[in-house]
Design a protein that fits this description.
- There is one protein chain.
- The chain has 648 residues and is of the alpha/beta class.
- 58% of the residues lie in helices and 8% in strands.
- The strands form three sheets. It has a seven-stranded mixed sheet. Strands 8-9 form a two-stranded antiparallel ribbon.
- A hairpin with a 5-residue loop joins β1 and β2.
- α17 crosses α25.
């Protein structure tokens, strides 16, 4: 690394690698891993390897591994690290320590400065705080980074000490029901984000085995923020009150609440001082930028948060200081800086892993797709985006929603009708085939307006026990109906075969009813829910088709000979397999594919969405953890959301 560098030349440096999931990987290995990994994930799934002391229960160690991966990835993809990587420096532990001042306030005592040698873990463990801490600061002041650094230390502790609770990250922006208690919300988030069942989550919460770290209080609608404060206080005072709790919030919003959080103390992240900014810019050889900004009090005041300082460094080549200095309001200054950042990130040279041979989208197209994404996330008050959670409500146009429903309905009915008609037509004549094809189209599976992913199939003994009495009654009714008919038509010799088929078929049906879909897995790869749904569609279709064809084929042979048995078995394999395949995942895949196709054809998204989102992490617009994506900061998400969406 040269001793001094021109900032404009520095920013032009290519990023040597990509930062998917917090790791650094090269293009060749990614291509091979994607091809082989998708196949392996399709058939076997991707499992989280437990970490920590084996004395801790396995499920807790799996959760701990997921949290550790998330914390590591988000810290590694921070803008501060991006600055160092752009400069060709490898981030070192001493380089990622906070360089801003912090004040601590305990109860009604006045706030006092916190020594810069004091770590966030020491604050958390202090006798006065006792693990119940509030982190306050201005936008971009380092609140979330401070919380992540605390989570990193708590994760290390939990790995070494099996009796320590597992730290878990939550974002309060997903609390959307005013009537939902914080406990129930935590359980829902544990299931949605980390794949923890409600029953297991309740056990962990009741036994104080979790350490919740709550971020995003200020990201709720303004009128709901204080209501959320009230819910948190109820949680702190309830029967399952936590032993430890950490909450992050912007200081401006929090100061306006009439109700305060019942935590033991708070730390206030202070704006950067002039000396701290000077030392930072000097350490990364941006002395020219410092000499320019230091003479402008408005700009100097603006970059007193770590976020905006990092953005200024990354966007410096795109900034016209004369234009920037002519702006008067803080909002205009920030907007100009963010636009300069977007412009610089869109045009800088990168070695893209997502798109090979530089065949990536144009700057204009990338901006358009990010605007649409930010607007959808803002509408749903989300800070994280998962491809498999895309729903029909993304289609603002009612005509497009109708097109989606009709398309999925048509595909489902035609598939069922064609398969049934083809089987009957081949075995029993064209006329009967046409008739049964029409019947198949009419009685096809009902389409839901919500796309439900099927990631795990579970079997419930209780569901089966409730079904068997009804099936037994149905069996008796059918025997009472078929017996007189067989006597009248002189086919009593067929009763044994019919009875055998009914018993086996109803037994198989009763056991099948016990299976149900459950979405209980951590999101490890993009679009994991759809991949798993497709996997279960194929598996359930094949298994059901084989078993059903065997049962009914044997029954048909006993009733009316080998030829009839083969016809029935063949028909059951295709029809039964198709029906169960559509029920357990197939229909989900059709709905998702059709929704993606409509969004793509209308210019809202690219066809390969995961590749585009990965590309946006390379451009430093998004962060990726497993299959989840988020903007690098809420300020950037809000900035994109305020832009006008214009399709090409």
């Amino acid at each position: 690394m040269p001793e001094s560098q021109d900032p404009k030349k520095v920013i032009n440096n290519d990023l040597p690698n990509s930062q998917f999931g917090g790791g650094f990987i090269n293009a060749e290995s990614v291509n091979a891993q994607r091809i082989g990994g998708d196949i392996l994930n399709f058939f076997f799934g991707q499992q989280t390897t437990p970490v920590g002391d084996p004395a801790r229960p396995k499920n807790e160690r799996i959760l701990l591994a997921a949290v550790k991966e998330e914390v590591t990835a988000r810290l590694r993809q921070s803008l501060h690290n991006a600055v160092l990587i752009n400069l060709g420096k490898e981030p070192q532990p001493q380089q990622v320590k906070r360089f801003w001042d912090t004040e601590i306030k305990i109860g009604f005592k006045p706030a006092k400065p916190l020594p810069d040698t004091t770590t966030i873990l020491e604050v958390f463990d202090s006798q006065e705080i006792a693990g119940k801490l509030l982190i306050l600061g201005a936008p971009g002041s380092g609140k979330t980074t401070t919380q992540l650094e605390l989570a990193e230390e708590l994760t290390k502790r939990a790995e070494e000490q099996p009796d320590c609770p597992v730290p878990v990250l939550f974002n309060l922006s997903s609390w959307k029901d005013d009537r939902q208690s914080l406990t129930n919300w935590l359980l829902a988030e544990l299931k949605s984000k980390y794949g923890v069942s409600i029953k297991l989550g309740e056990e962990w919460v009741n036994n104080h085995q979790l350490l919740p770290l709550l971020d995003g209080l200020d990201e709720l609608e303004p009128q709901r923020q204080e209501l959320c404060v009230h819910e948190i206080n109820q949680f702190l005072a309830g029967e399952t009150r936590p032993l430890y709790l950490v909450v992050c919030s912007r200081i401006e919003e929090y100061s306006n609440y009439s109700t305060q959080l019942q935590l033991n103390g708070a730390i206030y992240l202070q704006p950067l001082t002039n000396n701290q900014i000077c030392n930072y810019l000097t350490s990364i050889n941006f002395t020219e930028l410092w000499s320019t900004i230091s003479s402008d009090l408005d700009l100097l005041e603006l970059i007193k948060t770590p976020l905006l300082l990092s953005i200024t460094v990354l966007a410096s080549q795109e900034i016209s200081l004369e234009s920037w200095q002519n702006l008067t309001s803080t909002a205009d200054l920030i907007q100009y800086l963010l636009e300069a950042y977007i412009g610089r990130m869109l045009t800088r040279n990168i070695n893209s892993v997502a798109y090979f041979q530089n065949k990536y989208p144009s700057a204009e197209q990338t901006r358009i797709w990010l605007v649409w994404l930010a607007q959808q996330m803002q509408r749903e008050s989300k800070t994280e985006f998962l491809i498999e959670e895309m729903q029909p409500y993304l289609l603002n146009d009612n005509h497009l929603k109708k097109a989606l429903y009709i398309s999925v309905e048509l595909v489902s009915r035609l598939a069922t009708g064609f398969t049934l008609g083809a089987i009957v037509g081949l075995t029993d004549g064209l006329t009967n085939g046409l008739f049964f094809g029409i019947v198949g189209c009419v009685v096809s599976i009902k389409i839901n307006s919500y796309i439900n992913n099927i990631e795990i199939l579970r079997w419930s003994k209780e569901r089966t026990n409730h079904t068997f009495p009804l099936l037994f009654i149905l069996f008796l009714i059918l025997i009472l109906i078929f017996t007189p008919i067989a006597i009248v038509i002189g086919a009593t010799n067929k009763l044994v075969g019919v009875t055998t088929v009914l018993i086996i078929l109803l037994l198989f049906t009763g056991l099948s009813v016990g299976f149900y879909a459950s979405e209980v897995q951590e999101k490890k790869i993009p679009n994991q829910g759809i991949w798993k749904s497709l996997r279960y569609a194929v598996i359930s279709g094949l298994i059901t088709g084989l078993i059903g064809s065997l049962i009914l084929g044997i029954g048909g042979w006993l009733i009316n000979g080998l030829t009839f048995g083969l016809k029935i078995g063949l028909g059951t394999f295709f029809i039964g397999g198709l029906y169960l395949g559509l029920t357990f995942g197939g229909l989900t895949c059709i709905q998702h594919f059709t929704l993606r196709l409509i969004l793509y054809r209308n210019g809202y998204i690219p066809w390969n969405y995961a590749r585009f989102l990965d590309y946006c992490t390379e451009r430093l617009f998004l962060q990726r953890v497993g299959g989840r994506y988020r903007f690098i900061h809420k300020l950037l998400q809000d900035h994109f959301a305020q832009m006008e969406f214009k399709r090409n």
